[in-house]
């Protein structure tokens, strides 16, 4: 099975590390969720993995071959970037049909029939310029490029941004249908964690340019617990366990615990134990870290 591997990847902007010694392996036939706070380096990581941006150090390999300036490897990759209405974006001057035509030239596995079908399904006006589209319509363009690319490794940056709830459900179903039919690998960067959690086979949490966690989503949730109750009882029940994101209200306290193999919460304490959502686990792991900046990555 094909694998895309990053080893010790570092990327520097203006003297600051956007990515720091990132190493991870992406396997063929999985849907990965890439989540992190604004400025964590998600978009930078996707651009380096797909050789749209060079790394300062480290390397990215597809089945043992470097992807940088390697047409054979690049033909297997697609990074469908989030579109925006910034005036400096050269894509904005293009009409939708021109944008899709350029994509078809650069993506050798392009499926024109699928692109045409999705344009019709989404009701896109292909004669409109990118700059004249709503945020939701821009997202639809990026989704069409990603799915019609037929690239074995396909990366989507905030594909659901701007979509209403009905369109988001349509997107998730289209993605699952394509995944079931083709066995392609999808990596989805998103802030809409709860809706997408069920489709992620594995989740990658990026924090301040580093991979904080990469794990099977279900296994992560199974070993995660939220313990709440009187502060003293919670402290006693979780003594010796690694707790995250303490939440206090008067004398009550709640903490998130990620149990390691062999660990369990002892009996005999007057506490409430709940299973947290993926979003709550993410907040517990990244919500209190120092040094975050409120910026887009």
From TrEMBL:
Sequence intervals crossing the membrane: none
Coiled coil: none
Keywords, ordered alphabetically: ATP-binding, Nucleotide-binding, Transport
Pfam families cross-referenced by the UniProt entry: ABC_tran
Domain called ABC transporter: residue spans: 4-233
Keyword ATP-binding assigned: yes
UniProt GO MF annotations: ATP binding; ATP hydrolysis activity
PROSITE patterns linked: ABC_TRANSPORTER_1, ABC_TRANSPORTER_2
Keyword Nucleotide-binding among UniProt keywords: yes
SUPFAM superfamilies named in the record: P-loop containing nucleoside triphosphate hydrolases (SSF52540)
Protein name: ABC transporter ATP-binding protein
The organism's taxonomic lineage, starting at the top: Bacteria, Bacillati, Bacillota, Clostridia, Lachnospirales
């Amino acid at each position: 099975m094909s694998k895309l591997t990053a080893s010790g990847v570092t990327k520097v902007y203006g003297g600051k590390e956007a990515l720091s010694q990132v190493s991870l392996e992406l396997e063929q036939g999985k849907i990965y969720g890439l989540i992190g706070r604004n400025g964590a380096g998600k978009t930078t990581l996707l651009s380096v993995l797909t050789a749209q941006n060079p790394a300062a150090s480290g390397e990215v390999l597809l089945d043992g071959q470097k992807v940088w300036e390697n047409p054979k490897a690049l033909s297997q990759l697609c990074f469908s970037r989030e579109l925006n209405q910034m005036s400096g974006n050269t894509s904005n001057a293009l009409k939708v049909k021109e944008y899709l035509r350029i994509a078809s030239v650069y993506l050798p596995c392009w499926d024109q029939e699928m692109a045409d079908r999705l344009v019709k399904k989404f009701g896109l006006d292909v004669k409109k310029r990118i700059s004249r589209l709503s945020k939701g319509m821009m997202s639809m363009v990026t989704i069409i490029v990603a799915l019609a690319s037929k690239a074995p490794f396909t990366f989507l940056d905030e594909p659901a941004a701007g979509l209403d709830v009905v369109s988001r459900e349509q997107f998730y179903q289209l993605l699952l249908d394509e995944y079931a039919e083709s066995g392609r690998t999808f990596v989805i960067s998103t802030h809409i964690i709860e809706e997408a959690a069920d489709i992620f086979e594995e989740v990658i949490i990026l924090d301040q340019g580093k991979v904080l966690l990469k794990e099977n989503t279900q296994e992560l949730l199974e070993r995660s617990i939220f313990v709440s109750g009187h502060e003293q009882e919670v402290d006693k029940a979780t003594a010796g366990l690694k707790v995250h994101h303490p939440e206090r209200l008067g004398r009550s306290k709640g903490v998130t615990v990620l149990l390691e193999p062999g660990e369990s919460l002892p009996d005999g304490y007057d506490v409430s134990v709940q299973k947290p959502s993926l979003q709550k686990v993410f907040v517990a792991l990244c919500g209190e870290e120092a040094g975050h900046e409120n910026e887009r990555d």
